[in-house]
Amino acid sequence: MDYMFNYLGPLRQQLPLVGNRSRRARLTFAEGDFAAVYAMSDIHGCYSELVEAHRRIEEDGARIPGPKLILLLGDYVDRGPDSSAVLEFLCKAPPPGFQRFALCGNHDAELVKLYRKPVRILEWLGFAGPETLNSYGVDIEHLLQSAAGNESIARVIRNMIPERHIQFLESLPIMLRMGRVVFVHAGVRPGIDLNKQKDSDLMWIRQPFLDEGPQLPVLVIHGHTPARVPTFGPQRIGIDTAVSATGRLTVLTIKGTRVGIL
Question: I need a surface site. Which of 77, 130, 215, 247 has the fewest CB within 10 A?
Answer without folding.
Answer: 247
